[in-house]
Amino acid sequence: MKGAMTFYQGSELYIEWAAQHGCGVNQPNVMCQMVLQYMCEKDNPGLRDGTKRGNDNTAGGEQEPPTAVEAAETALGQHEPLDFYLDCKQRERQKGLYTADQNVRDDRGATATRQNPQGNAANNRHGLECPEERDYYPYWHPTPWHDIAVITDESPRRCEYYQSESQNVRAKGFCSEPEHNNPEACQDAGAEWKEREAHGEDPPDCVAGVSSRDNHNGNARGGRPNYYMWRIPEYIEGRCVLRLRYNITTGDFRSSALATLDGPATDRLDVGDDYFNLDKAMNDPNPGARRRAVFKGGPPVLAQDPVGDWLDLGEDFRLQLQVNTNQYGRTFQDRTHSFYIRTRPASASNARIVNYNVRGRRGNIVQVYPSVEYDFVPQDLKVEAGDYLHFQWTGSDANAKGNDGNGRQSTDRSNLVQLSDREENVPLAWQSHTLLYNAVASPDEDGKSLVRRFAYLGQQSQLCDPDDNDQNSIQNCKQLNGASAYFDGGLVQMKTVGTHKIGSTRNNDFSNRSQKATINVVPRAWRTEEVIALLLGLAAAAALLGYLGMAVYAYRHPSSWLFSKRHRPRVLRYLVGQQRLDAAIQRRKDWKRQERERWKDLSGKAEERTPDEKDMADPARTSKRTMCYACLVSLGLGEGQRVFMLILTLLNVICFAAGFSLHTGLGFQESVAYPLAKGAGFALDMDLAILLLPTLKSLQTALRGKGGRAREWMPLDDPISFHIAVAVLIAINSVIHVGAHFVHMNLIAGSPTFQSDPLEAWHLTSQEQISGTSVDSLLLTRSNFTGLLITALMLVIYVMALPSVRRATCCLARRCGGFRLFQRAHSVWPAVYLLLLAHSTPRFWIWMFFPALFVAVDRMLLTQRQRYPAVLVSARLLLFDVIHLTFEIPENFNYQAGQYIMLHWKGEWHPFTLTSAPEEKHLTVHIRASSTLDWCSALRRHLMLEAPQAAESSEGSRAEPNPGTTVDYEKIVLPSGKVCCKALPVSDGSFKGTGSSSKVALDVSVRQVTRERTKSVNTVKTEDSVALMEGANLPPGTVELQLQGPFGAPAQRVWEFKTVMVVGAGIGVTPFVSILRSVQMRKQQQLLLKASRDTEAPLLDRHARHDAAHAMVPPEEPAKKKKASASAKKPSAPGVDLSPSVLGRAAEPSERPKRAAPSKAAPAEDQAMVERLVKEVIPVPSRIHFYWIVRNQQELDWFYDLLATAVEGPAKELVEVNLFTTGEVELAAVKELKCVHHQYFGRPNWGRIFKGCKAQHVGDHIGVFLCGSPVIGEELARQSTKHSDPEQPSQTRFSFFKEHF
């Protein structure tokens, strides 16, 4: 070979080789390792190729041992330094190694090995290599060779050992007296054991090799050669050389091999669990004496060419095995000529550089075997536009004479021309070249010269004879005979995107040999850092445009919040100028002044506004059970919750089975973990799509419409429990999904890591490409990384949803925020679902299509249920830390008895059942605000203590208020339009309870808040407006509350039943008090309608809510008489106040009932029809069985007054009140309760109660409603199913509804 190749630091060098005996994963015949190493002149300054040929070119000469003079001979090549070899020659060989039956000499140091048993002597030394270091890897003494890669069929099993023992990372020891090979012998001889430091480089790349067949030129899959892409390190410089070591052994050394088991010609040998650890224990005690003798068992494992009755056919049928024990475990090696590594030029300092070379030599396939004929390397290359190719190759002038080929005998030459197609052989004209430069786009002389240089190899035209056709003539430049063997085309930047075909005119001899290749130039791909920089730039540009857009919008809309002093874009002064900006500011001030006036007008008329009347609509009939549902009930499956959970569980099983079956056999190495993960993933897709549905309050309210059948199949009565049940299914499937994926990833990480195939020559399968990938790398993929984020967020949500955290019963949770932790954790659900969309396949997008629509509809309905400013009228403290809040009814706020609202304060929303009836002129809620409930107790303290104290501007601390204390609030409107409530100043007073029984009346001293009740609404002074508009603080003693709703609840369906059983446990009585109050109101409306019919009085238009003149008025709000001015404007006929909750849509003014002229008495049938119509328009249950369960007598005191007023009224005879006290009771403390019909001590016997109710209401459809403990709900559901008759006309049945927030 002539000429020294030069490569640049950081460039890609493709190293190819032929493994004649085969190698790689799943190679059936051998076990192997390929070790690729390099050495540079810094390790041996005398590194060189030499000029002599063949065996004459032996470093150090032929004599043994070599001398320094002979080693310095420049005509002789040299790789290892002389000192390295001399130390090896003197050092005692490692005698603990397995040498089989080889008679290894002990007098020639480490040059004697099993492969080289006679050691090195004169005329049989191969350069200055150390045979022991050559044959064993990793070596235990210092070596000048640096490890690049280990390619093995036992990755990753051996990789940790190879990498940790490499001198790249580990220092190697030696003795100051070279003959000693271990620290003990060295120190015993009085010498010093030293260590040579590690090379300080990365450990070698340890990968699994692609299988290659033996006896097929050592080519790998698809007939492509074995190769390794070495990215030359930046720290290497100068003259270097490569060495490839190829170790092979057979499977006879395994513990399960026939050679080590009992057989006709063998004895069982204890070779250990791992053949890798085979040592001198298996050596022949009489080496060298058993060749071709009858083998009677080891040790050794196998002798030299053993003879035996292997088939157990008898001694006359012996066979000889061809075994050379010095090659059972044999190392081959090959080395390159030296080459140079240089620093890369400044023009390509950061670019990719690929070395493009030529391999092969002159001759036909037989003459060059086991090498090959000519090839470009790489043969099929893909690069990006902007990358550089370093074209260079070297030939030879010393090939064997007589070898077939073209051109001058014994020489190798290669040129490069471009072809239009690889099936063709005629090169393109220079005007059509696109590889070296784009002559099609811009033909010029420089490009033409470049094409000529690559095609003609720089031959001087004056030295060539165009008419000379002698193949051996040096003037025959047509055959490149006048060119140098070495050609360096330099760095050529790839600029033209496309597929370029190339060939060599000299060596491309059709039917004999082919030298063609393809270079594919693709558009440049964005690097990760460039993508990040682009995204950051786009984000910055979007932010800037958004900021400018907000500035423009703010300027054009001075009344928007963007133009407020706090949020006004500062860039406006530069965009529009100070004069125009001042004018816009003045327009905003004018707008604020107009808004204050408008709010004053609206507030003054607030008490006169009433909702529009509703048209009368046909009442919904009670729904009938479907046949399928009746069958499920007959099987004992109960109401919708159980049915839906059964269906959901079955669907989970079906989805899991579908996912498992569709992915069986598709996992890595057909692992069952993959289909398990996919099966759970299929179930998770469905569960995560359903998880949101129970949280859609507006959708639930719509589905709870009268007469609907949704409840039979959907768990509308207890959406929170259903939400939790789905969350449990998600947790179970998540554990399976995540756990199975981790098992699958561990299997991948524990498998062989195949060497990379950047040329895509071997067409590695997807499993081979990911095989051996570390778990860390697998976790950084899109699906796995997003899965980790989802798991982390879901884990936080699950932990924060624990009762101990949500209810702040845990000390740590209470300190960290309690319910706020739960609320804030659940607020990240949009991020979770966005990550799920990025994490999953399009299948999940399909699952989420309809739930996403439902979420959109729910949000649309929520916008209709706008957030109303809650105008607090009063706050009253009751026993057991219960507060009674009274609000003004917001405009257009229509609700039904039994529904609930969401109350907002300090960034949190909480649900509370309305205790007022829709027919009343105020909204009321009762909130249990014990000290264990952080938000509720903080609200109680603020309303009852802090706000009044701040309103009084009192610096001292006030005493805790006593039960019975009432604090009145007044409405204030801020200049921004924000509505708040302010506590009124406090004056001394006293309060006396107003229980319906004097035995339960309260008599405690309190500080009562007085209020001047006027129609005017206080506004904040103008001078305070700027501070309030721009700041976040409110005036002292002010509270800002909001409410949203109303939302549907199971209790609202009581109007569908004639007979109702309502059960309230503790504060769970609140929704039923609202219902009882509404019953009284509705009964009164029925009586008024009948009275108006009997007296032939016209129906009056409804302008305001009428005060009830009976016991329905709460104790703290005595009934008032109508003002004279109001009565003067209206006729004296009784007015009928029709509830919005019992009528249909709002009546248009033209549709409202008009005055009717007096008429004669109606016939009896007309009177009956009127009564029936009244009952249909204003439905009222004919019988209500009310059951209230409390723990003790004192627990009912706080709520008894409200219950008593709810029971008293026109519908008194319809309600039966049953009180159960479950705790210990002193009979002396028992009080007479007038409104209670039956009082019991102990838990209810629901079986007896249901049995009695069934007997009392034969043939009725009875509604059973509960607000309380789920334990009670389970018993009520069971009793409802048990006492329901089969689906037949005139049969009694119970329908159970439960309420739970």
TrEMBL record:
<dbReference type="Pfam" id="PF08022">
    <property type="entry name" value="FAD_binding_8"/>
</dbReference>
<feature type="compositionally biased region" description="Basic and acidic residues">
    <location>
        <begin position="596"/>
        <end position="618"/>
    </location>
</feature>
<keyword id="KW-0812">Transmembrane</keyword>
<keyword id="KW-1133">Transmembrane helix</keyword>
<dbReference type="InterPro" id="IPR013112">
    <property type="entry name" value="FAD-bd_8"/>
</dbReference>
<feature type="transmembrane region" description="Helical">
    <location>
        <begin position="817"/>
        <end position="838"/>
    </location>
</feature>
<feature type="region of interest" description="Disordered">
    <location>
        <begin position="596"/>
        <end position="619"/>
    </location>
</feature>
<feature type="transmembrane region" description="Helical">
    <location>
        <begin position="785"/>
        <end position="805"/>
    </location>
</feature>
<feature type="region of interest" description="Disordered">
    <location>
        <begin position="44"/>
        <end position="66"/>
    </location>
</feature>
<feature type="domain" description="FAD-binding FR-type">
    <location>
        <begin position="865"/>
        <end position="1053"/>
    </location>
</feature>
<dbReference type="Pfam" id="PF01794">
    <property type="entry name" value="Ferric_reduct"/>
</dbReference>
<protein>
    <recommendedName>
        <fullName>FAD-binding FR-type domain-containing protein</fullName>
    </recommendedName>
</protein>
<dbReference type="InterPro" id="IPR013121">
    <property type="entry name" value="Fe_red_NAD-bd_6"/>
</dbReference>
<dbReference type="InterPro" id="IPR017927">
    <property type="entry name" value="FAD-bd_FR_type"/>
</dbReference>
<feature type="compositionally biased region" description="Polar residues">
    <location>
        <begin position="112"/>
        <end position="123"/>
    </location>
</feature>
<feature type="region of interest" description="Disordered">
    <location>
        <begin position="97"/>
        <end position="128"/>
    </location>
</feature>
<dbReference type="GO" id="GO:0016020">
    <property type="term" value="C:membrane"/>
</dbReference>
<feature type="transmembrane region" description="Helical">
    <location>
        <begin position="531"/>
        <end position="555"/>
    </location>
</feature>
<feature type="region of interest" description="Disordered">
    <location>
        <begin position="1109"/>
        <end position="1165"/>
    </location>
</feature>
<feature type="transmembrane region" description="Helical">
    <location>
        <begin position="720"/>
        <end position="743"/>
    </location>
</feature>
<dbReference type="InterPro" id="IPR053320">
    <property type="entry name" value="Protein_DD3-3_O-glyco"/>
</dbReference>
<dbReference type="InterPro" id="IPR013130">
    <property type="entry name" value="Fe3_Rdtase_TM_dom"/>
</dbReference>
<dbReference type="InterPro" id="IPR039261">
    <property type="entry name" value="FNR_nucleotide-bd"/>
</dbReference>
<feature type="compositionally biased region" description="Low complexity">
    <location>
        <begin position="1125"/>
        <end position="1134"/>
    </location>
</feature>
<dbReference type="InterPro" id="IPR017938">
    <property type="entry name" value="Riboflavin_synthase-like_b-brl"/>
</dbReference>
<keyword id="KW-0560">Oxidoreductase</keyword>
<dbReference type="Pfam" id="PF08030">
    <property type="entry name" value="NAD_binding_6"/>
</dbReference>
<dbReference type="GO" id="GO:0016491">
    <property type="term" value="F:oxidoreductase activity"/>
</dbReference>
<feature type="region of interest" description="Disordered">
    <location>
        <begin position="198"/>
        <end position="223"/>
    </location>
</feature>
<feature type="transmembrane region" description="Helical">
    <location>
        <begin position="643"/>
        <end position="662"/>
    </location>
</feature>
<feature type="transmembrane region" description="Helical">
    <location>
        <begin position="682"/>
        <end position="699"/>
    </location>
</feature>
<feature type="compositionally biased region" description="Basic and acidic residues">
    <location>
        <begin position="44"/>
        <end position="55"/>
    </location>
</feature>
<keyword id="KW-0472">Membrane</keyword>
